[in-house]
């Protein structure tokens, strides 16, 4: 995965949600990372630090929320977590399941300094 490109996307996503003058007040950027997204949180954090070093986001830090892999069964409609990458419904045993979570890579919310105000994505 290209963490620098992903970090740029996150920075753009933050820029889309806030007025330019609010960027310097961003304290925490909450990011959801799916188990299956293939993104290394450490590499992403490093890329983010490099890209924002001399920007209004220099003081912001990333907070990662892992999103576990989840599936829904096409046969019985039950949702369940995926364990050990086994895509099979634990309720009825069907292997016709679809992934419903775990591929996320997105900004969930932002915390701004001062007012302690939260901006939800
Ligand atoms: Zn099932």
- How does the helix and strand content classify structurally? alpha+beta
Number of extended strands: 7
Helix content: 10-25%
The total count of helices amounts to 2
- Provide mean pLDDT, rounded: 92
CATH architecture: 2-Layer Sandwich
Q: What's the alpha carbon Rg, rounded to whole Å? A: 17 Å
Q: What is the strand content?
A: 25-35%
H and E order? HEHEEEEEE
Find the CATH topology.
hypothetical protein PF0899 fold
Give a quick account of the main beta sheet: strands, pairing sense, barrel closure.
Answer: 4 strands, mixed
Shape: elongated
Amino- and carboxy-terminal Cα gap: 24 Å
How many structural domains are formed by the residues?
1
Poorly predicted sequence stretches spanning 5 or more consecutive residues: none
Bound molecules: zinc ion
Look at the structure and give the CATH class. Answer: Alpha Beta
**Spatial sequence of strands, sheet with the most strands:** 2-1-6-7
């Amino acid at each position: 995965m290209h963490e620098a490109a992903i970090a740029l996307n996150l920075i753009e996503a933050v820029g889309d949600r806030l007025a330019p003058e609010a960027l310097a007040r961003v304290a925490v950027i909450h990011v959801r990372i799916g188990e299956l997204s293939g993104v290394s949180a450490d590499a992403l954090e490093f890329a983010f630090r490099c890209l924002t070093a001399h920007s209004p986001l220099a003081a912001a830090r990333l907070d990662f929320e892992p999103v576990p892999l989840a599936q829904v069964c096409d046969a019985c409609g039950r949702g369940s977590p995926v364990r050990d990458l086994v895509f099979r419904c634990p309720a009825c045993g069907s292997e016709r399941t679809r992934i419903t979570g775990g591929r996320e890579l997105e900004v969930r919310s932002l915390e701004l300094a001062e007012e302690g105000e939260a901006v939800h994505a």
